[in-house]
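Hi support team,

I submitted a single chain yesterday and got back a structure, but I'm not sure I'm reading the token output correctly. Could someone confirm the output below corresponds to the sequence I sent? I've pasted both exactly as they appear in my results page.

Thanks,
R.
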Amino acid sequence: MKVVFHDRVGDLNNELREYAESRVQRLTRHFHQLNRVEIECSAAGRHSAAPDRVIAIDVRLDGHRLPSLNAMERSRDARAALDVALDKIDRQLVRLKERITDRKDPRAARNGRALGLADDESDSSSRPGKAEKAEKAEKAEKVQRVRVLARPEPAEQAEARLEASGRPVHVFVDEEDGGLRVAYRSPGGVVILEIEQV
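Hi R., thanks for writing in. Yes, this is the structure output for that exact sequence:
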């Protein structure tokens, strides 16, 4: 990766150049295909006593289909403007990498791989076939989140509500101790789960 400086006002001393190069090297932790980085320092408001410094950064990436990234920041201090502009480039690189990985695997957002949550079966030796993938997708679509309001009531009343509603479970708060309970049907009758938080 090549770093090129264009100093229009003489503010980029050696210390600032070394600092900028070290920050640019850290950009490769997100995206290794950086080809050329151009950093331009100029002045804005030349007629004022203390003109603002404008830092413009242009990042060229390897690959003809990848966009170039640009950021511009203005501040009284050249180093502060450089920091903010490099932070903008950093965020753009992260977004670009997320877009590229999502484009390669459009199901990534749905099955959790975009968040780094890979399945235990993610090695290449046990990859499922098309039929297994379709079956997993169907199961994933069947999972629903339901918000339940748990009202305080005695256990006997909760059992009666479970029987009357026809639903498989009934969630309630026990009137005696205020604990969360779940009543469900089993072959032997109604079971009440006492949930304790650890």
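A quick pointer for reading it: Residues 109-126 have pLDDT under 50 and may be disordered. Let us know if anything else looks off.

Best,
Support desk
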